[in-house]
Amino acid sequence: MLQQFAVGAGRMAGMSDTPHPDPMAEPSALALQATLVDFALAELVRQQRQSFQPLWSRESWAKLLIWLALNCGCGTDTASLEAFAAAIGPSQTARMRRQFFERQLEDLNLIVLADPAEQQVLVWPLGPAIGADAAHDLALDRVAAALARVGLDDQLVADRSCWQSLEALVAVPWSSPCS
User: Fold this and answer.
1) Is residue 56 part of a domain?
2) Contact status, residue 139 vs residue 123, Cβ threshold 8 Å
3) 111 DSSP β-pair partners
4) What is the pLDDT of residues 43-78, one digit of tens each?
5) Whole-number Cα distances in Å, 26 to 5, 96, 137
6) Of 67, 83, 120, 146, which is the most buried if we count CB atoms within 10 A?
7) Residues paired with 121 in a beta bridge
8) Looking at the 3D structure of the chain, how many domains does it have?
9) By residue range, what is the domain housing residue 112?
10) Residue pair 152/175 in contact by the 8 Å Cβ criterion
11) Residue 13 pLDDT > 90, yes or no?
């Protein structure tokens, strides 16, 4: 049963080359379990991400993973932590990392993705914005307000002339090498 669950979870996470079942068909119990696990992990990451300081750092991400491993019964030795990381798998880890470093600011209609492993912080509209709406959503004052709200303003290049306004997003460089 556990092996079947892991295979199903892998398929639901997009880690399989086999075609997905017909979306109009009734979902299987295994597919529902996999979706539930994915949902629960995402919620756990969102609820706990503020707990691991310093925010917006590789260290905070590592602390979350260690916390998860310890709460799953893993030992503190390197082999146990590596086995835990392997069990999560690269696809699920990538999704969790994005959720950890992403903030949605509904009142500003913006998403901030600030992964310290990347060279820039990305900011884009939460929903589809076209024409004047997109220009309004991505106005540099609104982007600066979003960055300040999530506590990033002191970690990024303040000179707005260094910010890149692209068609659908604004890219803001980190002020120092990745932490």
Assistant:
1) no
2) no
3) 104, 124
4) 999 999 999 999 999 999 999 999 999 999 999 999
5) 17, 27, 39
6) 146
7) 172
8) 1
9) 102-173
10) no
11) no
CB 97 within 8 A of CB 108: no
Instruction: Using the predicted structure, report yes or no on whether residue 4 has a pLDDT greater than 70.
Output: no
H helices within the chain, ranges in order? 2-12, 29-48, 58-71, 78-88, 90-101, 132-137, 140-149
Is 115 domain-assigned? yes
Q: Residue 147: how many CB atoms within 10 A of its CB?
A: 25
Q: Let me know if 33 is exposed, middle or buried by CB neighbors in 10 A (0-12, 13-18, 19+).
A: middle
DSSP E strand stretches across 5-146:
102-105, 110-113, 120-125
- Determine the Cα–Cα distance for residues 172 and 108; give it in Å rounded to an integer: 17
Paired tokens of 62: 């590592």
| 89: its two tokens | 């798998």
Contact 131, 86 (CB under 8 A): no
Amino acid at 12: M
Q: Amino acid identity, residue 170? A: V
Task: Provide the pLDDT for residue 58.
Answer: 96
Question: Can you say whether the dihedral through the CA atoms of 64, 68, 69, 73 is positive or negative?
Answer: positive
Q: Is residue 108 part of a domain?
A: yes
